[in-house]
Specification:
Blueprint: E1 2-10, H1 19-32, E2 38-46, H2 48-59, E3 67-71, H3 76-79, E4 85-92, H4 94-104, H5 108-123, H6 131-147
Parallel strand pairs: 1-2, 2-4
Antiparallel strand pairs: 3-4
Helix pairs in contact: 1-5, 1-6, 4-5, 5-6
Length: 157
Amino acid sequence: MNVTVEISNDCDYHWVPEQDVCANWIKIVMDLVDTERTCSISLRFVDEAEAESLNSQFRGQPHATNVLSFPVELPAAVTQNLPTEPLGDVVICPAILEREACEQGKTQQAHCAHLLIHGVLHLLGYQHDDSSRAEAMERLEIKALEILGFPNPYLVG
């Protein structure tokens, strides 16, 4: 599996992970789901105002959120002619990430890895809209984080 990650830091937050670190986190989860694609993902870090605007516009939720995913839906005739398959965009709000990490007793890096893995799984079609699908998605998140040396994010405190 080969993934290209394009990072855009559209906020003035003091910490975001390096591009190669993000690419490694993404590669781990994609390997877990047996994805042998050559793909690209756009990762944006945004401030709370942008996170709120996007969440309101695309999900009808009038508040900022920690992570959003926007899968690309292109016809196969288009993607087969591209050097990499664009999977979509993952948007993370570092200010919310930091607050949640502190509240949950996690490191920023561990929580960021979890949010990015969660977002990538959404790009790959995973959902948590019912208990069985949520459990399947959580198992993948836990396994990917375990491989990366991070604790189970669902065991808070």
